[in-house]
Structures
1.
Amino acid sequence: MIEFEDVTKRYPDGTVAVDNLSLRIPSNEITVFVGPSGCGKTTSLRMINRTIERTSGTISIDGEDINSKDAVTLRRGIGYVIQNAGLFPHKTVVENVATVPKLLGWDKRKAHSTAMELLERVGLDLKLAERYPAQLSGGQQQRVGVARALAADPLIMLMDEPFSAVDPVVRDQLQEELLRLQRDIGKTIVFVTHDIDEAIKLGDNIAVLRVGGKLAQFAPPSELLANPVDDFVEGFIGKDRGYRALTFVTADELPLADVPAELTVAADGSPVGWANGAAKLELVGATFQRGDSLRAALDAVLTSPVGKGVCVDETGKAVGVIDYGALTEALRP
Amino acid sequence: MTWIGDNWPMIWDQLREHLYLALIPMVLGLVISLPLGYVATRFSWLANPLVALGGVLYSLPSIALFIVLPAVLGTGILSPVNIIVALTIYAVSLLIRNVIDGLRSVPEDVLQAAVSVGYGTLRRVLTIDLPIAIPVIFAGLRVVTVANISMVSVGAIIGIGGLGELFTLGFQGGFLTPIVVGIIFSLALALICDVLLVGLQRLLTPWARAVAPVKEATV
């Protein structure tokens, strides 16, 4: 657990970047700091590894004040990922990843093999290990950045807008993989972004900060969407929060109707299309599974040519359908 | 050609002296500019005055410097130390700008990453900042080396000038051969040193040429 107690950062010119922040960041979860520019989210993050020193208040990790050991030692125990990755251009990919193990004095061979394992883990083609960062795409560089942060197996990983400079498709992919990785490694991750959608997608908890460095709300995403504390948070979350909140409700309880005869299925049971009186089959559209969110189920209904969303099992076999009426009934709180 | 053959021992000595008088100041200049340049990037208000001072020093006429230095340093008028000190001053005045520019060429996010993953200051400067600054520093080093090789000849006026002494010889004897030989050898020396420096730089910075982005199958 990382604990902020009355933490303030005031610059010599009088600007207050972070104002009396108190916060408990739970272990082994992803906590996202989100807010508009000037809200002190990056400053708050960087005070954790003391690349920015706070003016007053205390920050502790698992009860131990971060000032109880020297800053360099502290930083070697905390992974750090920044925008554009910040890879060392004169070191190869694998050398970049082996940086912290080498700083910690690990045996060279062990540092190298650990680095290779991590590259594999973040999904980088190992043929790229001996390349230099300039030879990699932005998405690949960011994977290396994550691998470098994890190389010495730190308990905490700080991520400062790591995916904001890559294109939306790659960003989506990197987000998915971070979630997958986190399921395996269970680090305490503090993630900074200005993008509320990214925060909702990744965060187990979200801290919304307002300009001037004040905490507006600290809550899990579902709670944030359901009960924003004030106009600022509501405005920041955006207009379609009702729809987005469906992401956090599963489709497990939906009352499904049996697969109707009009739905043509293939030999393996997977849906092919609707025989809707027309000569040609109409394609099914999106499908959803039990375990998906209500958002996926609603999407399946909306994209269906006949207003019926098809539910499939893990093998892709159609197991039932749901129409508008049944779905809206299920959406009613 | 026969003249070169007949006088080879003398030319060989002058060649070695020339190289020595040109390269020692180059090395000394680098050794002095590196810490100076680092201090100037650390305290940025120092950078502009230092670069300006370098410009002023570089504009001092070399002959004047060769003649004034013995008085200032208390060395004999014929001591090679005068040449070495003078050329070191020129080397520093040129290199300081490149060292500052080189260190400033290290991207901000790279510096931030280095600090954040736990580099101490000295280690960071030596293993991150300096290597990344090499291409810019070497650009200055090449200029300094070629300039030094040409300037050593001026030292012949006060009697220590490596190949420059061939020019004195030619003027005094009234014949052209030693002058032509002096020019050719100076040029060749400059060219060889430059090629060696380029080679050394390529050896030290394999990453600087690795810029072709790899075609990506996956991101």
2.
Amino acid sequence: METIGFLMDGFAVALTPYNLMFALFGAFVGTLIGCLPGLGPANGVAILIPLAFTLGLPPETAMILLTAVYAGAMYGGRISSILLNIPGDEPAMMTCLDGHPMARNGRAADALAVSAIASFAGGLIGTIGLIMLAPVLARFALTFGPAEYFALFLLAFATLGGITGKNPMKTVIAATLGIMISTVGIDISTGTQRYTFGVLELYEGIDFILAIVGLFAISELLFFVESRMGSGRGKMSVGKLSLSFRELVSTIPTQLRGGVLGFISGVLPGAGASLGSFISYTLEKQVVGRKGTFGEGDIRGVVAPEAGNNGASSGALVPMLTLGVPGSGTTAVLLAMLISLNITPGPLMFTQNAEIVWGVIAALLIGNVLLLVLNIPLVGFFVKLLSVPPMYLLPIVTMIAFVGIYSISHSTFDLYFMVAFGVAGYFLRKLEIPLVPIILGLLLGPEMEKNLGHALVLSDGDWSILWQSALAKGLWVVAGLGLLLPYIVGPLLRRRMNAAMKESPVSD
Amino acid sequence: MFFKRTLSFVAAAAVSMHAMAWQPSGKVECLAPADPGGGWDFTCRSVGNVMQDLGLVEGTVQTVNMAGAGGGVAYAHTVSKRAEDNNLLVAASTATTTRLAQKQFPGMDADMVTWVGALGADYGIIAVSRDSEYQNLNELMAAVKENPKSVKFAGGSARGGWDHLKVLITARAAGADKLPSIPYLSYNNGGEAMSQVVGGQVDAFTGDISEATGFMKSGDLRVVAVLADERLPGDFSDIPTAKEQGIDAVGPNWRGFYMPKGASDEAKAYWVDAVDTLYASDEWKKVMRNNGLIAFHPPADKFDEFVRNQVQEIEQLSRDIGLLK
């Protein structure tokens, strides 16, 4: 097969000691960047671009370095989600939901290990998908018009109720808050400013990184201060790696589902890794989470989003490499790098710059293996972080976040704003309003609004365009099912489960 | 080649004469008004490198990113906090003049800084997909004139932004009225907009030539006009200009710099000359070639006038379509 030949050539490029060294370096730096709150994959890649230039790296080496950083950041994001309940970057947000409860139950090591394996599986599935299906999928992505995108985002919001289940109304409130925040800034479809009150810093809208760091990291710090004032908080037990082989095997279906779903949402430009990890999590919860252990430290709740976001990170490379269209913020930066390396992005890149494209793909495979090898031994190291008393750990993390944010934007305004988000996050948590849907609203709201607007412009205001194509109809049906099924199937299952519980009180 | 060498030698000599009067000492800063990875960031980093290679600066040029308000935060910073800094260059482009013209930097206008020079441009294009019924710009514009709603355009800037303005400039030059009713869909970047056009969801693409090169070479996209005075060099020489199709529309997206108004006259003269020298150098020509930039460099004394004219033209156009009251 021709592809195999190309891939072998790619390996020949990526496996030279020189390139391998940079892949290892990139993977390590990426993991570090990913686990620091405030620095995500897009920043990580952007920060290293000047380095690639200063070192005068050849194009394929530069791309391999940056791809490794990208994959590494996707691995790293989960670490602070699990240990501190502070997502390292936006796709790692979903990992907080079950990862941190696992750590609280003394299973931090297990959560870290299983999420590393899930990341590997997701990355592997994504890369294989990229190799096998890239050209086909790129054409498929082209068939997505505004109406289809709108239906896709609607699907995401329809399944939102499932993520933090206790009080669906509070989830809706949180998502609405996120969408409201997302309307600040220039409205690209009319060119007018909304809710900016003449403040220059608000003109481009509110950066979700600020919101994430503020809502999660700073509010965590505030909570800690409060609990120190009061009775004090018990130290978290660290726990040894107790993951059994059987448990690992039981998560394989979840890994597969998560990886595939993540990959698909990564392929669609504009959807990206956050949607990948989000849909993987909610679907997993709908499929197997009826026992109600999701959100309390279910191992599958860690596996699904991690497989999802790493699958998506490979998926996002599909439109970038085959069409020259960035599928996410990070790939947009990678694309800028390609352009400055005198490579024309576009449909011909696969044929004209085969050695670079396949070198990158091979580097992604190698990078994933390296990252797994790197991350498993590091579990012990990272878990040790938990034995640092929170009174030292949390301020350090917050400080790093401040420095990280400032180093990107050079704006003190952003720092004040972040603190404001932190205070807001504190009160929202007091009200038991979940934070994750706020970020999702912030991320997905503008895309949904934009595509609705576009669809209506295309149809001259005729709403029926939204469900005209077969693809859109399909998405609407899935969205409808996602919204209604929990209410129909839920009670049924609960009844059956109660019956089963009486028979055997033991469950894993 | 010989001519170029001589030119750069003369320019270099001119610079060194000025250099006796004033020379940047210490750290030179290039302010990129966006996050790393974008066009302004690229301008700063590549210019910084070439300036070092040519010995135009003593030490290094440090690129500082200051994102916000589409360049507004950096503009305000330059005007208020760095008003007399001799060692500061700020990357700018047509996006800067567009926002100035549309009063999107509140309380600030183009007079508040010194415009140093341009270092090349990316020219605007109008394109359709391979299967489109429109073969050339005239057919496309005829359809717009007959019914402004019949052709939907997609581009990578917000409504009222540069990509949208290019459609309006072209349509107005073609004699279309009802400019505000021409549908324009804005996407996050040119690539996303293009994929919607290639996928057949939207009729026409408006953007810059460098964005479209990939899809153009693969044959998925048919560029019906480039908005330049003359045909572009090299691979692009097959693309007809709007002018030769009888539609007098030009849309260069230039890359260049401004600096603080209060800097000393010697410093200003030094940087204007430095940009001239840089532009004439072979090193810069290579950067331009590698990045799809095309020759664009108004003479030093004309650049300020060019910026003012562009601001005025965009302001008028924005009024016409109701973006400005």
3.
Amino acid sequence: MSLIEVKGLKKSYGDVHAVRGVDLSIEKGEIFSLLGPNGAGKTTTVEILEGFRTRDAGSVSVIGFDPQSRGHESRIWRNRIGIVLQSSSDAGDLTVIETIKHFSGYYSNPRNVDEVIDSVGLKEKEGALIRTLSGGQRRRLDVALGIIGNPELLFLDEPTTGFDPEARRTFWALIQQLRTDGTSILLTTHYLDEAEALADRVAVINNGVIIEVSTPADLGGRATSQATVQWRDGDAIKSEKTDNPTALVSKLSATFNGEIPELIVTRPSLEDIYLEMIGGANE
Amino acid sequence: MNKIPSALQLGIRRGGLEIRQFARQRESVVFTLLFPVILLAIFGSVFKDTIAPGVTFSQYFVAGMIASGLVNTGFQALAITIPMEREFGALKRLRGTPMPASSYFIGKAILIFASMVVQILLLLEFGVLFFGLEMPTDPGKWLTFAWLVFLGSACSTALGIAFSIVPKSGRGASAVVSPIVIILQFFSGVFFVFTQLPSWMQQVAAIFPLKWLTQGMRSVFLPDSFATQEVAKSWETERTAVILLVWLVIGIFFSVRKFKWDRD
């Protein structure tokens, strides 16, 4: 049984068909990333999985529960998952440690408060009031609150929006550590490099349907797509698309008698592939 | 696997957290706890007459201030702050945890009750020291006082939570809620002697809990001889309890059924 199993999921708001038949299967232990432009049905899909919205049709199972369940059933389910939402800006008058300690009391088997504070890198800030935290520190606190219940599954929504590049790298290391510790993660992000760095598999959603599910390296035939070889020939920069970059490079090497000036070999980035996919689907 | 903490247990913990959070917001602490004292100082200095033999305006006014304190501290504060918590995303985050809605409600009820107790103690102390407020001596009156504060606070909390679904935004909440409370205070005989109000105002006020809380508080702080000057010629204690209970049930019903955790 997969950790998350979605079949034929549909959701409309009036005449707007936000989700038009989504199928997804997410396995235990993986970081799975859902990609898609605004309005593609990404947020609706994730919020249905998180139990924040109801569905119109289809079946959904998240760690064996229907997210639409209510009452005690819902508490048992929420006890086993963690959610890091896009933005919370509340409770500015409590300290970091007070807040995390309080949230830990919601769960039956919470993680150790000090360990969690350490793992998100807020040790020096644990006594600080939340309203004095920077954006990045606040985001770390959001993650701490998402993982304090020791969840089997963590929902991460746009976790690094507004981070500087260094903070993003540190944050990625934290997420990878969580996976190593056994937490499965559903990540939604606008940053393709983030999906590439973190995700084991990515799904691209557009116009309310999933157009492809694959590893970041293979998405859209990326691994086998043509490479571009670029080099300098006298005054001119030359480039050539080819299925056999190695052959071209050794040919050039022979021509130049060794070193090829300013040689660059590239394949399309995940972003190139992605933009092509959603552009194509929009036409 | 340990058990998930019970809703009551979490509610009490939330109450502690709410109080701690509230105590750190200095402006609202001062405003909430001292506002009735300030009003008493103003009104008590302006109106020095007696309303009936042995009943000073201050004595009458303290009863009204305690009653309207219950509405301000519970209903008004919650109907304004909960939409803000919703706008900040705080409620949605709580929704994503195993904490049940009832714990959140219990936490609010504890906060309101605790701040009511402090507010009342300050007001009574101030009234006795500076405005010759006379405290009841009959234990029966203190019993009435206790259940009025308890029931009034619960009722005000439940209605504040229920009404928090009405304001469309956190910023606009105050504009929606405050006029309702102010009008209700004028209609319910907080600032004026109730029997001197036009009868249509009295009838409108009689639908809502504030009038009954005010009248109930008068039964505690005014001599029993004053009861004959009430509209019904009596304190109507049982009726007050019933009406407050009905409003409490209405408040709980809408809080449980209609509470909104998310902006849309």
4.
Amino acid sequence: MDYFIELLFSGLTRGSIYALIALGYTMVYGIIGLINFAHGEIYMIGAFTAFIVATVLSIYGFPLIAIVIIAGIAAVVWSSSYGYTIEKIAYKPLRHAPRLSPLISAIGMSIFLQNYVLLAQTSDFLPFPRLIPDFPFMEPIAHIVGSTDLVILVTTVIVMVALTFIIKFTLIGKAMRATSQDRTMATLVGINVNRVISATFIIGSGLAAIGGLLIASHIGQINFYIGFLAGIKAFTAAVLGGIGSIPGAVLGSLILGLTESFATGYVSSDYEDVFAFSLLVLILIFKPSGLLGKATNQKV
Amino acid sequence: MLKLEKVQSGYGNKLAIKNVSLEIQEGEIITLIGANGAGKSTTLMTICGVVPCRSGSITFQDREIQEMAPEEIVRLGICQVPEGRHIFPQLTVKENLDMGAFLRKDKEGIKKDMEYVFALFPILAERRNQDGGNLSGGEQQMLAMSRALMARPQVLLLDEPSMGLAPLVIKQIFEIIKQINEESNTTIFLVEQNANQALHIADRGYVMENGEITLTGKAQELLANKDIQKAYLGI
């Protein structure tokens, strides 16, 4: 039973990280109908920013809690500015081009950013400092749920609640929903659509950066390539839940995380990805729009 | 109040409106009638800045607006209810109305205006927490008009408000249009294929063919015009 609960929590932790990244994919898709393949790299850049800031601060002997907060803020700000800039440079000029063009531009952006970090930093794995200590109160159950898992889960829940609040009740959140449902009409009521799109990229990138910080301190090492697999997995989760749907992205991520965790625990870690992607194929066969996605008819 | 002079615009390399000049006085109801594809909707979208104006000028209260961004034009007080209503389907009725007041900051005024449109269309008050997409066609038209009113427009552009609605509902919609015009002195620019109804509530009318204005005059004169009767009124 302990083993089952351990796997359950490890699955939820994974799922939470996927969710933080998947939200960026699904929000951007909802607004401009683009799969932002550079999103995984935004997450990687978030992890690197946190790495640099945390390492420097720990050299100067800052207390751990200050390091976590400052590194987190730095990662969010830096990644968001990347997200914002990428949209302006690589996608906005192609707003009225055929759909394939921005998609290719996104893949190009992804490769560019990977290589940029490779050249600017290093191709080696870098040891990420331990930002989350073992809490004494977690001692009795530490063999089942680690302190890092707990922090990841709690952080994710807080972020999700905040995001739901923004989307549901604030003016910019309503404007984002309105823009994703009918862009022409959003323009006609006076919404500055460009600003809404920028806000979407900024929020999505910020979430990915939080994910990057959390997972890096969980796994303990980073390199320029971590964005690729994490990006693909999160994208899979977003499609699984129904791309464009925010609750769908969270649900898909948790299911994907749990599937991987149980597959690793009960079968073999070699089969982790096999199970994850088989699940995707199965769901797409029986419900092509994803779990919570709406079947839409393309207007001709 | 609103004046178009030799306006050209269109999509891609095709001109949808070639040479349109028209003028609306404050407090008037004018109507633009014409066949499918004549360029009526494009005219409205050009006024709102959604379709760029290629040449000519659009003046509103002595200011040239043809270069302005759509949201600036809304801020000046020009609002459109587009063809097909364009309700935000997964926003509630109330949220749709909130979006209509997107650029306004005066919370009190917004609340008062929401009560005003709920009094105008009581059915919307009943459905305020339902998704816009679940309303019937007539209710959606009411919501679309209310949403535009939430911006307190000086000029209301209505594109085919009668499209796809039952005759009884159409009658109600046209009565409300007249009422809006009289109660708040809102200038109304009505684009319609239903020429008969439109000319009956309008002060003046313009006839559009192939992207050009071919005829203009008082609504009563147009109703009596033999060519108009034959082409648009089915008499």
